């Protein structure tokens, strides 16, 4: 490996430091504390760490920080405990369950944007967060949030934005109110269900209560799932519209596809398989702005990765943000080109495109996230063209919310 770079410098400008160039190696060492830090840049090595040898790695130190918000939950567990819980919860959130509850998603999201007014600015991230949380709470927890959806979405967004840099004092000082609000919401659901309130058979809350764990663990899982629901669909869609606003042809093609397939009606989950251009737009937006910008893993013992010995206790970092911009696999990597996502992408290594991770710790909610994203795009883009200030920066976790102006199609 080449000489290590500063982890702080890397996180300030990950693309400037980490995109592999001709002759660059697959691993990049970073200086960050006592434990070795290594960025895995080669897609085959990425696949090896996440999938081939996935059972021999646990979640890394940055992922474990989330325990300060929701305790030990599915996304922070390792080994047999992780496998057991994932298998137990999968029926409530897997692809068959999402298809089964397609009508719920249609009702929640098919009317997205219907109450907007032409020319009246909309805070897009807030709207998308609120829609995503409302749909997720209904599908997973059998709860109608109503007017509480926006407040819950804002609390979750505040926690998610702060999570990477949380320290206990900062959590107490800056985020205590948001965390307490979210915990109270989850505690209320648990208490109501234990007192006899009915949900849909097989929903996430029923499966969690059936685990026989403490209510604090159930609460933590509810918060963890809601945090993911607040983050993944909304940020990806905000980035998608920023990109579409700068590509008139891609936007025109999207509107044309929606007119041909929907003919003016509200979209349904069943329609998403008949909208290949829309799926390509979403995948390209996920390539450029992946929900999980960084994934970290910790080997349980000494491991060989790309010909290098990685010691036990090292923190391996995988960055979809970096991997998705590898020009060897995505020519003109900074360009928004949805057409590259059409078809099967033959020749692209499996580890080159991982917006939801891969392997044993891959995002369990990917089918639901994709359904939520697809329905929101189909509903909103079928009604509106979203005008965006040309000076607005590309959305990232650190940029202010994006404001858009709806213009009728």
UniProtKB/TrEMBL annotation:
Organism per entry: freshwater metagenome
- InterPro entries attached here? Cyt_P450, Cyt_P450_CS, Cyt_P450_E_grp-IV, Cyt_P450_sf, Cytochrome_P450_monoxygenase
What Pfam families does the annotation carry? p450
Family annotation (SUPFAM superfamilies): Cytochrome P450
Keyword set, alphabetical order: Iron, Metal-binding
Q: Provide the protein name.
A: Unannotated protein
What cofactor does this chain's UniProt record say it requires? heme
Q: Which Gene3D superfamilies match?
A: Cytochrome P450 (1.10.630.10)
Q: Name the Gene Ontology molecular function terms of this record.
A: heme binding; iron ion binding; monooxygenase activity; oxidoreductase activity, acting on paired donors, with incorporation or reduction of molecular oxygen
Residues of the region (Disordered) are: 390-409
Q: Which family does the entry's similarity section mention? A: Belongs to the cytochrome P450 family.
